[in-house]
Design brief:
There is one protein chain. The protein is globular, with a radius of gyration of 25 Å. The chain starts with a strand and ends in a 9-residue tail after the last strand. It has a two-stranded antiparallel ribbon with strand order 1-6. The protein has a two-stranded antiparallel sheet with strand order 2-3. Strands 4-5 form a two-stranded antiparallel sheet. The protein is built from 25 helices and six strands. By secondary structure, it is mainly alpha-helical.
């Protein structure tokens, strides 16, 4: 069964010649559909494999340094409240984003486009996300360089370069290589993560009690402080954009069916917002290890995860504590930095494809991301950890909160389309609902962060960012009646969309999302969600060719009525027989 739409004969610009992609950009085994919908034919991994790969990326030890920094600065009580509050906020906002990415096969940038930001509005969030990946690559790389310096005396400046180069061959090969690395290194990481706490449970059983009354190293005291709580939460919330890295894996989740529904839901919850449960535990654990090692190594080294690890292992391993700790740190940092480099290449690809209308391939942007990260490491950004992350969190939480508000509130209220439309052909350049909410929220919160509105506003600037974004996104969508979400209707989906292919998510009679159509530009077959109808080409066009077209004049968006839809047969999911 097919649905057809009559062809409009309105004159349109002469179509440019057929596009041929560079070899690396055309190789999806490396490219991993970096700027596209991830087709069902590519999602060959099981829910547990995807979840395991996504969770492998949270092996990072920056959590140790962040937790230790918060508790050392604001004391145990305020630090504990900060870490737990940030974890709750991250978990709640991450649930709808994770489910959307896994359901629609889209990464964080493509979700952002359709969740209130518009086609060009999300270029700013691509930069925000890219900065998250290279900032945390630099933090993790610094920790790895510290470990190599401790273990073999390698100068940290050389260590920075080694930590950068070592991830390139893995990230270059894409999701397949990343999944293998995460699986192979997981046993080593688990042993290394648990063993120090087992040792301390036997060798220093009273340490947890002493830690609970720790007042920090800056004179904060062991009691609760609202200022310390607010500032500490801001630092912990800098990790909120981690959901983007989880989404880069979740987009490969297979379609949810009746058979895998329970495993699918559990995997998405665990690999999406569930990362922060482990993350919060690591922050507290890292703070505890640093506290135990404080007297022996001093504050500066206690904030470097390698030194507390050595001190914790020394009672049982003696002279082997140093190499054992070094192996754990290096494995942990490789696990996370392959994810940082991979996600960074995706975000830079998204940004430059829209700005330059060119796409040489995801792999080339690996080098850009790593070059920036290496520069930050050489500038010793680790020394400014707290202030840097506190500032970044104001922007990150405004972005994530606006997207979550659209998915949870706007779509249910009918102000936003019930599906995620990410293709240029159907989107306005900027949607004020999400983009406006994020811009206003982050601007106000940054001003508060720098003390413009007083001490308490400075401490709670991230709460201001989250609150404003959550309120303004639905408010603007309501005020504009959702008119800036779609520049023209999608003739395939109409008002509804089946996200799950021919599985549980596909409504009877809905378009079959696994059906392929040949792009009129690159002459490659792509599944239906990646296809738009193009009046310039008089046929289907894939989302990437549509993004890269600099000569079409945006005819379809600027004058939808004049451009009109083109003929595009759409296979449908057969309706179930009566009584089935």
């Amino acid at each position: 069964m097919t649905d057809t739409v009559a062809r409009d004969t309105t004159p349109v610009p002469t179509p440019p010649p057929r596009r041929s992609y560079a070899r690396l950009a055309a190789d999806e085994s490396r490219e991993d559909y970096s700027l596209r919908y991830a087709p069902h034919s590519f999602r060959r991994w099981s829910p547990s494999t995807v979840a395991g790969t996504a969770l492998g990326g949270i092996a990072y030890l920056a959590d140790f340094a962040i937790g230790a920094s918060i508790v050392f600065t604001y004391g145990f009580t305020s630090g504990l409240a900060s870490i737990l509050t940030a974890a709750v906020i991250i978990f709640i906002t991450g649930i709808p984003i994770a489910r959307a990415c896994a359901t629609y096969g889209l990464d964080m940038d493509l979700i952002t486009r359709g969740a209130g930001f518009g086609y060009f509005g999300s270029t700013l969030t691509s930069l925000i996300y890219a900065s998250f990946t290279f900032i945390f690559f630099a933090l993790e790389g610094s920790i790895m360089a510290q470990a190599m310096h401790q273990a073999v005396g390698l100068p940290v400046e050389i260590g920075y370069l080694v930590t950068t180069l070592i991830v390139i061959p893995i990230v270059f090969r894409g999701m397949g290589a990343l999944a293998k690395v995460q699986a192979w290194t997981q046993p080593v990481w688990i042993v290394g993560m648990v063993l120090p706490f087992v040792v301390l449970a036997f060798e220093a059983p009273d340490a947890w009690g002493a830690f609970g009354s720790f007042g920090g190293t800056e004179g904060a005291g062991s009691g609760f402080s609202w200022i310390g709580f607010g500032l500490g939460t801001g630092v912990a919330l800098s990790l909120i954009a981690q959901i983007g890295e989880q989404a880069d894996y979740l987009r490969f989740m297979p379609a949810k069916t009746e058979a895998n529904k329970r495993r699918w839901n559990l995997a998405v919850l665990a690999a999406g917002p569930g990362w922060v449960v482990i993350g919060a535990a690591k922050q507290l654990g890292g703070a505890f290890l640093a506290f135990v090692a404080l007297e022996a190594v001093g504050k500066t080294h206690a904030l470097e995860p390698i030194a507390p690890q050595i001190e914790a292992l020394r009672p049982w391993l003696g002279s082997l504590a140093l190499p054992a700790a070094a192996v754990f740190v290096i494995v942990s940092q490789i696990k996370i930095n392959v994810t940082n480099a991979y996600s960074g290449s995706l975000s830079w690809s998204n940004f430059f494809s829209r700005v330059t209308h060119r796409h040489p391939g995801r792999v080339w942007y690996i080098f850009l991301n790593l070059a920036i990260a290496l520069t930050l490491m050489e500038m010793n950004m680790f020394a400014a950890l707290g202030k840097l992350l506190g500032f970044y969190s104001n922007v990150g939480i405004a972005w994530i909160a606006a997207v979550a508000a659209d998915l949870v509130i706007n779509k249910r209220a009918g102000w936003s389309p019930p599906y995620i439309e990410f293709k240029r052909a159907y989107l306005y350049a900027v949607n004020p609902a999400g983009f406006g909410a994020m811009t206003i929220a982050s601007t106000v919160s940054i001003l508060a962060f720098f003390g413009l509105f007083g001490t308490y506003a400075e401490a709670f600037s991230t709460f201001i960012a989250a609150g404003l974004a959550l309120v303004l996104c639905p408010l603007i969508a309501w005020a504009t009646k959702g008119r800036y979400y779609l520049a023209r209707p999608n003739p395939v989906w109409g008002p509804e969309r089946a996200a799950g292919g021919t599985g549980e998510g596909a409504d009877a009679g809905a378009p079959d999302v696994t059906a392929t159509h040949v792009c009129a530009v690159c002459e490659t077959a792509y599944e239906l969600p990646d296809i738009a109808d193009c009046p310039v080409r008089s046929g289907p066009i894939c989302s990437l060719c549509c993004s890269l077209d600099a000569e079409c004049g945006d005819v379809c968006r600027k004058d939808p009525a004049a451009a009109g839809p083109v003929l595009m047969p759409v296979p449908t999911v057969p309706k179930a027989p009566p009584g089935a």
